[in-house]
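Record type: ASSEMBLY
Status: queued
Input:
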Amino acid sequence: MLAVNFLLLSAVLFSIGVYGVLARRNAVMVLMSVELVLNAVVLNLVAFAVINGSVDGQIFALFAIAIAAAEVGVGLAMVLLVYRNRRSIALDELSEMRG
Amino acid sequence: MSGLASGTVLVGVDGINVAKNVGFGIIAAVMIFAALCVVTTRNVVHGALWLVVVLGGVAAQYLLAAAEFVAISQVLVYIGAVMVLFLFGIMLTRAKIGADSDLNNRSWALGIPVALLLLGVLGYVIIDGLRDTVVPDRGPTPTVLLSDGYLGPYLVPFLAISFVLLAAAIGAIVIARKD
Amino acid sequence: MTMLSDRQQLSYIAAQAADARLNVELETEGMTLNIGPQHPATHGTLRIIARLDGEQVVWAEPSCGYMHRGYEKLAEVRTYPQVTTLVNRIDWLGSFANEVPFILAAEQLMEVEAPPRAQWIRTILFELSRIANVSLFLGDLGVQMGAITPVFMAFRDREYVLNLIEGATGGRFHPNFDRIGGLKDDLPAGWVDETRQVMRKLRNFCDEIEDLLFGNEIFQSRMRGIGVIPADVARQYGLSGANLRAAGVDWDLRRDQEIALAYDQVDFKVWTHPDGDCFARCWVRLQETREATKIVDQLLDGLPPGPIMAKVPRIIKVPAGEAWVSTENPLGEMGYYVVSQGDLGPFRVKIRSASFNNISVVPWVLRGVYVPDIITILASLYFILGDIDR
Amino acid sequence: MPSRSSSVVVRLSETPDSGETAVAALPGDGLREAIVDTLRAALGEQLIDSHLIPTTDLWVRVHRDAWLRTAEVLKGAGFDYFCFLSAIDWMPSPWGRGEDDPNEPPPERSTELQWGYTGGETRFQLLARLNDVDRHVAVTIKADLPDDDLVVQSWVSVFAGANWHERETAEMFGIDFAGHPDLRNMYLPGDFEGHPLRKDFPLLARMVKPWPGIVDVEQMPTADDDETAPGPSADESTGDTAS
Amino acid sequence: MPKVPGLIKGLGVTFSTLMRTATKGANTVQYPHEKEAPPLRARGVIALREDNCTACMLCARSCPDWCIYIEGHKQLAPPRRAGGKPRQVNHLDRFDIDYALCMYCGICVEVCPFDALFWSPEYEYSEPRIADLLHDKDKLGEWMETVPAAPELEAGAEKRK
Amino acid sequence: MSALLAFEIPYWGQSLLRVLGGIVAVLLPAGTIVYLFLFKMMSFMQSRLGPMEAGPYGSLQLVAEVGKWLQKEDIAPAAADQRIFKMAPIIVLVSTFLLVAVVPFGPQAYFTDFSAGIFYALAVGSVSVIGILVAGWASANKYSLLGGLRAAGQLIAYELPMVLAVVGVVIQAGSMNMQQIVVAQNTGAIFGFEWLGNPFVLSQFVGFLVFMIAVQAELTQPPFDMPIAESELVSGYMTEYSGFRFLMFFIAEFATAGVFALIASVLFLGGWGVPFIWFGWESLSDVAWWMNLAGPAIMLTKMLLLTFLMMWVRFSYPRFREDQLQTFAWKFLIPIALANIILTAILKVVF
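Status: finished
Output:
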């Protein structure tokens, strides 16, 4: 099995995620796109770990997963706060700094 | 998973595992399709469910790469917790049933060239650099190795991550609290 | 024993009110939840419209009338015996108790009094219908709280009481046994002994419910301190029965008014509870059921011999006048204001049913509670739809 | 098992002290007369009439302008338990008991208003009852409302529980309560026309179905009926009588 | 005395009920196979003794919801004693009770001055069609067979009429 | 690989057998639980007999009920998100089938032998949350949505004490593999009494209690049945479901109860081992072949014992309130489970 397979897959996921982050207006959708990007990276980590035959990549993959969970928790809390105050989670409406 | 990783499977001429490649291809195709749906769907909940498919596919890829523990963690954390959190957030922000017209921002079309450019660069680098590298067919990673890693050389990052998680949990509660 | 202090009660109420106010001020877009008219928790067709913020009730209002049968109007075109069959159907779980105040009001206008034996049997049947009614409440309480078993036990043991009522009156649910001046018939042979046995079973049932439900820590944690109705609010809203006594108001019409029933012949305790919360209401009802079985036992022991019907004309015309008689029904104070103009039927009957007043406090008490507590509070206030809408 | 911090356990075997006070002596006349006196002192001329059945009950009739004041005075005098509030339409029903022969013109009925205790002046009379829980005494309050101005002050500010009773009365009798926060219909649909408890509101159930008792025994069978009359008993009969 | 937690006590109640049902049988009755006998006074269905009915309409008048339909006519009955004058009696043409309307209050049975109506504890007469619940006088007459004798009264009761 | 039978069977045949076995292993306990406990035990606890007409003592009642559900119309509310609405019960049921895959029924009688078996079980057990959540959302019903949200909150909250309770077992057994846990219990010793074995229910009693309570909550059974609380939310996320989609939820509920009981008996009651007798086998490969036949029966017995406990509680208790449920999980169960882990770890190091 070629390593390129894994890496190309992760590149595609990464690009799709980047597109999502750029194109989406809804905050939750942006967060989901960020998850795509993160997963692409973690997939890379695991792939390289297997290629190199060391577990370090897997260990860092687990670190990344844990961090992702934390990031989602905080991110969603912020989205909820924004929603509660503004009745909307459209990001481009959040440009003004006044609360 | 021993069944998938070391079972009696068809073996190609150059030692490349054909069944594994086919499985990879199918899963990868599904994942890419699902990922495209995530960024193009017009309903937030559908998007979240497509993301579940992508994350499940990632877990399956980890299994193919014989990273059993990571795969299970992926299911437990991503599908069991993160996605539930997402759905929770979506439902608390009153997701509508049916198509939502304003999920994209006005300049969404700019994202396509950017993403394609990125894909091109990344693809070129990957194919150029790792064209002939073959993923060796190893058995499943023993969990012991992972735990030794955590409690050995990576103890400090492990603790740091734990604190980050704790801080994130507290922060999330503080942010989302009403009063 | 210990009790919720006044300060605790007041702080609870203040906290509820403050929460509700806060939510209104924030103008959070509430979700409007329609509980009923066909919701399992409303045992009947009561509808509660509740505006929620998350799971908290900002504002709630019951909407009744899905079962309005217009008994006050119907009574105007019926004769006195016919009205008796109508009022059976107001609180259909304790229907004999509905007849008694109406008949007593008519008797008061006619200035006749039922003979002692009739009064005793009336009182026995009155308490039996209380037991039948409240034992079902105790079981239903379990269902509202999510425990399935108590209701079956309640149905099991209520069946004995209903058999007794049917054996004596012929009707399980709608006895129509009371007549102006006495009763339709005397008790059948063997009824007294059977009743004694059933009362033992019912006391056993009360013990079981106490162990199964009231002693349960989960049940207590859901009931205590929830839906506190202080005494002055209870009086203002005209709450009656166990709902009033659970707020610490020691008022029981069985004891506190002179009435042509045999309550002055028996020794019983009026149970009150100082807390005024859901648990207090349910607990008072449990104790009252037990007390009712004891009242029945005492009455059976002293059942006087004699006639069961006073001398009344065959065709009953009630002299002109007005009378108000209310009794301590299973649900609370049930009264009839009967206006007669010397006709075959009443000129106007105002039916003061217990549940109507008891439920009118709901908008007050539901403010600021959580959705599951709506159910607890409604269950503990205990209403019968027919008794609200009449 | 965590329990709510504010809740304290009452052991079930014990009873909260209900106050082992002896049953209060049932009040006699003096008590009720004192109540009338209190009211008279507070309302003066606006207390129109009172009626007292010793050891049983007490009725007072007040002027409708004093309706709210009566409630306040009585609440101050210990009558803080709200029992009910309603109204009476003293007009005799033009429909009788619904037992008229539908084929005949309706019989003549008296249209004279006949008031009950404490008398009356107008067709509609308000009716309310307040209890004194501690002294075990109650009073029924009445007030006349002129037909052309069915408005009275609401009791909601004094007794919150009057809210629903006033809504019901407004719906059933068409009486307006000034100062009531929300005088919607309780039972009937919002667009319902008429006020069901007024005597001139027909009870449709009795209107649409003729009274079965109207089929008169005296209605004589014809020869056709005799032929179609079923049952063996027809054979035993010696013949129809024509009377 | 250490208090048994309510949680455990509750389990005990359900378990003892389980054992009681298993050993002593259930409290329920398997209806179509076994039936509980209703009490003698149970108001199941109204039976009509047609011979006693004089079509006096008293029951129909006293019925609160007008579910009794009576039609009759006068006819001459044979004299009681030979040679006497023929009597004039009311003959009953129709006596229907609409059980779809009936409230089972029993006023009609009570007011009947000629003992023509009786309560029977029979209860199995439900019908798929509501119109079939209108029992005519033949059907009401059939119920007479199921009417039990009035039960003995409890000690201390005064015999009425 | 798991050679359940002595003779050689092709790869596809093995897979087919596994799938069939999985279906049996899910449906058989579910059916038994429904008949034995839901129909009969609950009725007896309420002084009644339960179904008696279909088959002797109503034993075929379940078949009749399934037949009834299957022939019912498949209704989806008009406002619902049709595809997701129809998919949700399948997700829930699939999670149950994935769960049973790692449960060992005998020395060679298992579907797969994961090295991190119990970890896998906990992971796939959490997948059902998504099914429940989207079921609540897609029904376009406020009660359903509230029920779904409650269910999700509850399942996430109780997953943690469940995992923590398992950690104690894993520490004591020294393995996450379910077979190893079974062997560790049966070859273990308590204070030198080797013949007794060491079912972890004895040494991990606190963990056992926490695990069973968490299982009760994961199954949304009383006293934790707020998501489907009949008197509050009608039927919660199941309100709009009818016909065979409701049947799927129903099967999933009781099958999951059975599978969790199986997992609990592996973790705490010694799995497929005969209680107190181990015949002196040294390791997994020593175990006599007949254990493959006796094992499933023993597992079924232990499962029934545990489901009896679960159902007993279910039919006796009233339910918590939502906030009390969270309080109970975070302030009571999790600290206790953590303390249990620490204690276990200390004892493991000391001895």
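Annotation: The mean pLDDT of chain E is 81.
Annotation: The interface with chain F takes residues 7, 10-11, 13-15, 17-18, 20-22, 26-28, 30 of chain E (CB under 8 Å).
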